[in-house]
Amino acid sequence: MDTDAGHGRYRYSALPDRPVFDWPRGKRLAVYIGLNLETFAFGAGLGAELAPGGPQPDVLNYAWRDWGNRVGAWRIAAMLDALAMPASVLVNSNLYRDCPGLIEAFRARGDEIVAHGRTNAERQGTLDEAAERALIAETTAAIAAREGRQPAGWLGPWISQSRVTPDLLAEAGYRYLLDWDHDDQPTWFATRGGGRILSVPYPQELNDIPAVVARKETGRQFADAIADAFDEMLEQAQAAPLVMGIALHPYIVGRPHRLRPLRQALERIAKRRADIWLTTAGAVADHIVAQTAEPR
């Protein structure tokens, strides 16, 4: 396919000009939760910060993040159980070692397991091609060994890609990638050798790291943004089918003062389940892959 200059992955396509289709059962809005389960090296590497970090080991911020795996993730799992909502769980493969039983608990819920690198203490896009290929291979093998099959989707640690990441993922057998927030519908990316890989929209606005850590929003403001986006997208989806993702991190929204407003926003969405497709990123990808239309 013809592609835009620069990235060479997809061509320009105006939303109103595209073919109209439905999600399963005639739904117009697909909603998925992307729950990030991450692990960070102690005393080294990258990590989101609650407060400006001091010398390593930065105990303040390390412990703040570690709370998410010990407490916050379990509270979120209980909330999703109560709301009967599925999730795409974006996992660092080192969590199998660092937090035994955590990923397994979400597997038992029937959630989709999505690859998210080895650890979030490293940035994928800074690696050379050989090192990046090795990262993908190691992560894939670790997840496949525990889950019994290769994950279909990938989100780069720190939402970081090199210029060849889509190529490497396609060559490694991945069906879709996240990372890109350039559209409200899935987009086919061209890959080298005439291949392709699907990009499923992954949110940067409805994402608690940019919202709370960068923009300093309160839990209530973040929850209100989710509710407002849902109401608006449900209306907009009558003209064109859309995808609404919600990106969450347990060490942020698992905190009691943020969990309560988040629960209220998700309850608002769950009450409209008859009107929407509550799903996973992988199911969205499967639906598009099954279509025969010319990729955008």
TrEMBL record:
Which intervals of the chain form a coiled coil?
none
A molecular-function term among this protein's GO annotations = hydrolase activity, acting on carbon-nitrogen (but not peptide) bonds
Pfam families according to UniProt: Polysacc_deac_1
Q: Which InterPro entries match?
A: Glyco_hydro/deAcase_b/a-brl, NODB_dom
Q: One GO biological process from the UniProt record?
A: carbohydrate metabolic process
Xref: CDD domains: CE4_PuuE_like
What span is annotated as the signal peptide, if there is one?
none
Q: Where is the NodB homology domain?
A: 70-176
**What job does this protein perform?**
Is involved in generating a small heat-stable compound (Nod), an acylated oligomer of N-acetylglucosamine, that stimulates mitosis in various plant protoplasts.
State the similarity comment. Belongs to the polysaccharide deacetylase family.
Family matches, as PANTHER family = POLYSACCHARIDE DEACETYLASE, POLYSACCHARIDE DEACETYLASE-RELATED
Name of the protein in question: Chitooligosaccharide deacetylase
Which species is this record about? Methylobacterium mesophilicum SR1.6/6
